[in-house]
Design goal:
heterodimer; A: mainly alpha; Arc Repressor Mutant, subunit A; 9 helices; 72% helix; B: alpha+beta; Immunoglobulin-like; 2 domains; five-stranded mixed sheet; four-stranded mixed sheet; 29% helix
C-alpha cells in the first residue's frame, strides 16, 4: 500500500504543474520496470528502450493533462499503456520523433540495461553439473526457445514433467551460481 | 526493496518463457510494475537464460542434443561437423579451427530401454566420462551428442571409444553399441 500511496503522490505532483523533479522520479522509478516488460514482450533491447521512452512520455502526457483521474492507479495505467504501446510498436506506428521533439531528450534517455553480470566459466560448470535431462531442458528452452511440447517430445515425457524438470534445473543453477536467497 | 509476496523464481522463468496462462501472466505483470525486488530476480533469470543461450551457441557443453537444436545452429550459420560411425565400427575424424560444433551420431536400437547411458572411453576402452540417463526415443534411431568444441580443438591425435549402454526395467545393463573415433589433430 505504501508504494501505491507514493505513486499516487507522485502522480498528483506531476498533475499539479511542471514539476520536473517529480517527472524525473517517475522516470527513475518506472523506466526499469517498463523496460523489463519490453524485454519480455519484444525480445530486443533497443525495442525495449523505445517502449520505455514512449510509455513514460504517454504517462507524463496523461498526468500533465489530468487524464489519470485515480492517481493511485498509476501502475495499472502504466501497464495498460505498455500493452497498447507494444501493439503500436508491432504495427510499426511509432510516434517517437514527434514525442522527442515535444518533450526533449533529457526525459527520454534509455533506461540502464542493468542485467546482472553472469560469470560464464562458473555457469559452464553449473550447467555441466546438471543431470542430462535438466541440461537438455534448459538448453532447448533458452537457446532454442522451444515450446514445452517440443521439449517433451525430445525427452519422451509429458509437458508437465518438462515444467518440473525446468523448475528444478533453474533452482539448481541459481544455487550453483550463488543467486538463491 | 522487500516484497511481502515474492513471486517464485521458477514462475518468473515461466513468465519470461511466455509459458503462463493469460490471467496469471497479467497478475505477474501488474506485480512487476510495482515491485523492484521481484524485478531484480527476473533480471537474474533473464541473465541466466542469456548465459545458457551463449553457452549453447559456443558449443562448449558435452551433452545429447536434438535434431531441432542442430537445425537451429545451422540456420544461424554456425559450422557443424558430424561423424556417424556404425555400431561396432570406426571413423576417421578431425576438427578444424572453423568448426563451431562437433557432433557424434550413434545409431542404435533403443527398444525396451528404460534408461540409456553414454560412456566415453579411452583407446583401451577404459571409461573416462559417463553421461547417465540421456534423452532417447524408444525404437531404432540414433543419438546425437556434442563434444565441447574448445576442448576438441586442443585434442592430440588419439582414439576415443563411445559406448551406449541400456538398462531394462529390472536394472540389467546391456551394451547397445560401441563406436570408435580415430581423431587426427589438424587445428594449429
Amino acid at each position: 500500500m505504501e508504494v501505491e500511496l507514493e505513486d499516487a503522490e507522485l502522480a498528483l505532483r506531476i498533475r499539479s504543474g511542471s514539476d520536473r523533479e517529480a517527472e524525473a522520479e517517475l522516470f527513475r522509478r518506472m523506466a526499469p520496470r517498463i523496460r523489463l516488460y519490453g524485454l519480455r514482450h519484444l525480445r530486443d533491447a533497443h525495442a525495449a528502450d523505445d517502449l520505455t521512452q514512449q510509455v513514460i512520455i504517454t504517462t507524463l502526457e496523461a498526468l500533465r493533462a489530468g487524464r489519470l483521474r485515480e492517481p493511485e492507479r498509476l501502475t495499472s495505467f502504466v501497464l495498460g499503456t505498455c500493452r497498447m504501446t507494444v501493439l503500436d510498436l508491432r504495427r510499426g506506428t511509432q510516434r517517437k520523433q514527434r514525442l522527442l521533439d515535444q518533450f526533449g531528450a533529457d526525459l527520454v534517455t534509455p533506461a540502464p540495461s542493468s542485467l546482472p553480470h553472469v560469470d560464464q566459466e562458473r555457469l559452464t560448470r553449473c550447467v555441466q553439473n546438471l543431470k542430462e535431462r535438466e541440461r537438455a531442458v534448459v538448453v532447448m528452452t533458452f537457446y532454442d526457445e522451444q515450446t514445452g511440447s517440443d521439449v517433451a517430445s525430445f525427452l519422451g515425457v509429458s509437458e508437465a514433467n518438462v515444467r518440473v524438470i525446468r523448475h528444478r534445473a533453474i533452482r539448481e543453477l541459481r544455487e550453483c551460481m550463488g543467486l538463491a536467497a | 526493496m522487500n516484497c511481502s509476496s515474492p513471486i517464485d523464481t521458477a514462475v518468473l522463468a515461466d513468465y519470461w518463457l511466455a509459458a503462463l496462462p493469460g490471467p496469471e501472466e497479467e497478475a505477474i505483470e501488474e506485480h512487476l510494475l510495482g515491485c523492484d525486488s521481484c524485478g531484480a530476480r527476473l533480471r537474474e533469470v533473464i541473465a541466466l537464460a542469456e548465459g545458457v543461450r551463449n553457452l549453447a551457441r559456443e558449443g562448449t557443453l558435452r551433452m545429447a542434443v536434438s535434431d531441432t537444436f542442430l537445425r537451429r545452429v545451422a540456420e544461424e550459420g554456425l559450422q557443424v561437423r558430424e561423424y556417424a560411425p556404425p555400431p561396432g565400427g570406426s571413423v576417421q575424424c578431425t576438427v578444424t579451427a572453423e568448426d563451431d560444433f562437433l557432433i557424434g551420431r550413434l545409431a542404435a536400437d533403443l527398444s525396451g530401454a528404460t534408461r540409456v547411458d553414454l560412456c566415453l572411453c579411452d583407446e583401451r576402452g577404459v571409461e573416462q566420462v559417463r553421461l547417465p540417463d540421456i534423452p532417447v526415443h524408444s525404437g531404432p534411431g540414433s543419438i546425437a551428442y556434442q563434444e565441447p568444441i574448445d576442448q576438441a580443438k586442443a585434442w592430440p591425435t588419439r582414439t576415443m571409444i563411445a559406448r551406449l549402454v541400456a538398462f531394462d526395467s529390472a536394472g540389467t545393463e546391456r551394451l547397445l553399441g560401441e563406436y570408435t573415433f580415430h581423431h587426427t589433430r589438424t587445428a594449429p
